[in-house]
Amino acid sequence: MSDVHQRLVDQYTEIARLAGGLAHEIKNPLSTIRLNMDLLAEDFSADADNPVFRRALVKVRRVQRECERLQELLDDFLNFAKVRRYNLQPSSLNQQVKEVLDFFRPKARESRIEIIEFLAADLPTVLLDREAFRGALLNLVLNAQQAMPDGGQLVVRTSATFDGVVLDLIDTGCGMDGPTLARIFDAFFSTKKSGSGLGLPTTRKIIEGHGGQITVQSEPGKGTQFTIKLPAPARLAADPARTLLIGPAESGAPPPSAEPAAGT
User: Fold this and answer.
1) How far apart are CA 249 and CA 258, in angstroms?
2) Fewer CB near the terminus (10 Å): N or C of the chain?
3) CA-to-CA distance for 257 and 29, rounded, in angstroms?
4) How far is CA 72 from the centre of its chain?
5) CA-to-CA separations, 66 to 14, 23, 61, in angstroms, rounded
């Protein structure tokens, strides 16, 4: 690793450490506020016939909702800002895809989403931090679900290339216009009232941490396609800039047993 690259890594690590420390400092008083709002809600609920208490309870509930939103934002930010050292292991891309889809299938049925799989049988093994990768993939799947509120189709396709593998996720949802498409990987950009705007930036960070690339194509009213390209192990090992990311697992990305924040 070059001296310049090492300095950049050190600078980013320090910034991430400071940002994480600030977020933790905010979480402490936030927890106190939430606790006191819960106690106030109990007090005001005890006399529901009192019009003054009823009005006060409405305001307390509003503060509680905003505290919950701030807590979610802080959690997403800590997940986004942390410096990850990925525990890369030889893995089957198809197997990781199947695990995420199996977890998502009940939600898909509830949302009237048909999952269509085209998983190539001849894929080479790739190096993955499995928990981190599944968390990134699940975030994309949940974004597809949110883009299809009236149901639709989610096509999941894998294929091999001369230097790696490709994963496509194609939905028949609402799609995105040009200005939205240009910003979806920007931190804190969201098209949803409840979105933190950190889900997709975190997903891209994880994919790039694996030496991969993620791109997106979309058209309003027709749907969206995310494409993930991952390198073959030989090419990844030859990239000195990636050696920093190979080490003990420190990933905070959720496995398929938990839901990450949506990103757009």
Assistant:
1) 18
2) N
3) 29
4) 13
5) 30, 16, 9
Closest CA to 191 of 238, 224, 158: 224
The residue written with tokens 């091999």 in the block is: 160
According to CATH, where is 3.30.565.10 located in the chain? 89-245
- Interatomic CA distance for residues 207 and 81, integer angstroms: 15
Q: What is the pTM of this model?
A: 0.68
- 89-245, what's its fold? Heat Shock Protein 90 (3.30.565)
For residue 135, which of 45, 198, 44 has the smallest C-alpha distance? 198
The residue type at 128? L
Q: What is the pLDDT of residues 177-221, one digit of tens each?
A: 999 888 888 887 777 766 667 888 889 989 998 999 999 999 999
CATH 1.10.287 domain span(s) along the chain: 3-81
Tokens of 237: 């090992």
> How does pLDDT run across 16-41, given as a tens digit for each residue?
667 777 777 788 888 899 999 999 99
Q: Could you say which DSSP state residue 99 is in?
A: H
Distance CA 231, CA 13 (A): 25
The span from the CA of 166 to the CA of 157, in Å, is: 8
Cα separation of 81 and 190, whole Å?
Answer: 17
Contact 64/34 with Cβ under 8 angstroms? yes
Q: Which amino acid is at 144?
A: A
